[in-house]
Amino acid sequence: MLNTAADDIEIRPYTGGFVAMTGDGTAGHPDWPHLGVALVQPRARGRISLVSADPAVPPLIEHRYDSEPEDVAALCRGSELARELASAAACVGPPEWATSQHRPD
């Protein structure tokens, strides 16, 4: 995991691809390891509102992930850094699932 102090960006390597981590298997398609980019301390703030006094009614959730331009710019910089890191990596062939901590086999 790589943290950058300037933007509080976290770059996480995942040994399994998204499809394998969500439990759908690979559905016959290759599912490669990837990098995830996240903000450690985003400026944006979401909101949760109760829409009913009935506890069975779900609340209204407004994530507001991209509501702060500074967050969007920082994520773009993080994505560029992740792309740079990935392009510098040596090609090691097909994904090796035996080391994946995310795959539920």
TrEMBL record:
Residues 42-90 form the Glucose-methanol-choline oxidoreductase C-terminal domain. Gene3D superfamilies: Glucose Oxidase, domain 3. One of its GO terms (molecular function) is oxidoreductase activity, acting on CH-OH group of donors. This is Glucose-methanol-choline oxidoreductase C-terminal domain-containing protein. It comes from Mycobacterium stomatepiae.
